Amino acid sequence: MSIVIVLVCIVILILLITWGKLNAFLAFLIVSLMAGLFLRLPAEKIMASIQQGMGDTLGGLVSIICLGAMLGKLVAESGAAQKIATVLMNAFGVRYLQWALMITGFIIGIPLFYGVGFVLMVPLIFSVVYQYKLPAVYIGLPMLAALSVTHGFLPPHPSPTALVTQFGAGMGATLLYGLVIAIPAIVIAGPLFSRTIKNISAQPLETFRPQTIDKAKLPGTAVSFITSLLPVFLLTATTVVTYFFNEYESFKGILTLISEPALIMLVSVLVAAFTLGVGNGRKMKDVMHIYGEAVKDVGMILLIIAGSGALKQVLTDSGVSKEIASALQTWPVHPLILAWCMAGIIRICVGSATVAGLTTAGIIAPLLAGSGVDPNLMVLSVGAGSLLFSHVNDAGFWLFKEYFNLSIKDTIKTWSVMETIVAVTGLAGVMILDGIIG
């Protein structure tokens, strides 16, 4: 019965936004209240659950998204994005630009959290789109597919890392197997799939549309690349430093602080203010104005993401995810496929890949010992399932929809299908590896 209620709530959410033309944030709040009541969450806890969901979701994203928007807008306004796009185009040519962006997304996606990588790379995608008049979704989807795969499959991302611990897998082996599976998944869900959606029309957010600047006034190549990718360099560096010095208790506090994505984004924004702002002939007042405008532009995105977090929390607090997973335990299928199905169904119902992965782990872990399944492959199977069919209850869905300014229908045809291809391809890769090493 619970899964029927969840499906009804999701249908109502879609109808409120599409047919009723209601603001997505308001629709999320209404459906979150309905879900809480229908799933018999205690009345006095429904609003607390909604507020917790909004707070928890925004708590980890608001500073990153706002700082990323500031950096992205300055990168666009200063001409750095134009410079990077020009260099990439000259190096790879229009024909292979998709692959260049995809490889870039995969490399930076390993150390970066998904939200950071998204807001960091979207301005680069848009600069290429506007400068060379290429279809936005066609160019951008391969890079975002790479980011998504690293988020779901590869340590040190939160869900895979936690799954490695819960299943008693090896971090190195999981990463190695994950890389083997990730590459075909990215290629199929990225460049190959994007060929079928070339005609999808998208008008990305104006805030990231760079003005064409005279080539003589563009910042240097090194300054443009280093400043734009500074968060990547800093996160990679702090990850390496943390790995080597984590055993020293006296360093743990400072290592935790310097490796925080929000702090790294803050440092990057301040550096950009001087390298691309003051150092490029702008007054600090003008740079701060650009930053202020960037935050205004992502305000509604933050509210929509908060709304999705509210619904996710109501569904989680109601216990529906555990109920669904328990019902699936009796399925007579291969443990790897069972785990993938569990994670996939919970992901579709709840929206969070991390919640789907960790909930599935709690159910499947006791069954793993006697199954004879490689725990490293179980991590990847759950990780792949947790990416299945991202839709209106997932923050990533709304990030993509709002940044690329798409309709819900086109977002499902592009983003949701891409995520599903990643999940299915990932499962296929896991089963092939199981046949080889089993």
TrEMBL record:
<feature type="transmembrane region" description="Helical">
    <location>
        <begin position="136"/>
        <end position="154"/>
    </location>
</feature>
<keyword id="KW-1003">Cell membrane</keyword>
<keyword id="KW-1133">Transmembrane helix</keyword>
<feature type="transmembrane region" description="Helical">
    <location>
        <begin position="96"/>
        <end position="129"/>
    </location>
</feature>
<dbReference type="Pfam" id="PF02447">
    <property type="entry name" value="GntP_permease"/>
</dbReference>
<dbReference type="GO" id="GO:0005886">
    <property type="term" value="C:plasma membrane"/>
</dbReference>
<feature type="transmembrane region" description="Helical">
    <location>
        <begin position="174"/>
        <end position="193"/>
    </location>
</feature>
<keyword id="KW-0812">Transmembrane</keyword>
<feature type="transmembrane region" description="Helical">
    <location>
        <begin position="377"/>
        <end position="400"/>
    </location>
</feature>
<protein>
    <submittedName>
        <fullName>Gluconate transporter</fullName>
    </submittedName>
</protein>
<feature type="transmembrane region" description="Helical">
    <location>
        <begin position="26"/>
        <end position="43"/>
    </location>
</feature>
<keyword id="KW-0472">Membrane</keyword>
<dbReference type="GO" id="GO:0015128">
    <property type="term" value="F:gluconate transmembrane transporter activity"/>
</dbReference>
<feature type="transmembrane region" description="Helical">
    <location>
        <begin position="5"/>
        <end position="20"/>
    </location>
</feature>
<comment type="similarity">
    <text>Belongs to the GntP permease family.</text>
</comment>
<feature type="transmembrane region" description="Helical">
    <location>
        <begin position="222"/>
        <end position="245"/>
    </location>
</feature>
<feature type="transmembrane region" description="Helical">
    <location>
        <begin position="420"/>
        <end position="437"/>
    </location>
</feature>
<feature type="transmembrane region" description="Helical">
    <location>
        <begin position="336"/>
        <end position="365"/>
    </location>
</feature>
<keyword id="KW-0813">Transport</keyword>
<feature type="transmembrane region" description="Helical">
    <location>
        <begin position="257"/>
        <end position="278"/>
    </location>
</feature>
<dbReference type="InterPro" id="IPR003474">
    <property type="entry name" value="Glcn_transporter"/>
</dbReference>
<feature type="transmembrane region" description="Helical">
    <location>
        <begin position="55"/>
        <end position="76"/>
    </location>
</feature>
